[in-house]
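Help needed: design a sequence for this.
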């Protein structure tokens, strides 16, 4: 099983202000932007390594939301977690880029386990 940290997700109060900080102050590149069906917005800020996912959405409290990982086989990852005594915090759900679920690490930190679709990987990720 291959797993790799892809991004850290943060809920922000002002997306434009946060994008400007990561771009203009820290030197990140703006990746892609999507508006969510529930009125929120997501912008990915890229580096040569892991990225920062900025989400502006009044449905979530401001702050660190999760550490996002890319897994090559979500089912295998879940089986491995279960064998080690861990449970996901909810079902596997489809997303616009693949499918995902969450698990809490021993400290209660939310880890997003996402299996990106082949189409997404070809368009946005280097394999």
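Sure. Designed sequence:
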């Amino acid at each position: 099983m291959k797993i790799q940290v892809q991004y850290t997700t943060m809920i922000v109060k002002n997306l434009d202000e946060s994008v400007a900080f990561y771009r203009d102050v820290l030197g990140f590149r703006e990746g892609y932007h999507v508006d969510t069906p529930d009125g929120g917005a997501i912008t990915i800020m890229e580096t040569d390594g892991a990225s920062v996912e900025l989400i502006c959405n009044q449905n979530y409290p401001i702050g660190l939301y999760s550490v996002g990982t890319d897994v090559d086989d979500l089912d295998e990852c879940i089986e491995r977690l279960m064998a080690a005594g861990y449970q996901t915090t909810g079902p596997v759900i489809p997303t616009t880029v693949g499918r995902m679920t969450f698990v809490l690490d021993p400290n209660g930190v939310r880890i997003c386990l996402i299996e990106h679709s082949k189409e997404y990987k070809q368009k946005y990720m280097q394999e």
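The beta strands are 3-11, 29-35, 41-46, 51-56, 63-71, 93-95, 98-104, 110-116.
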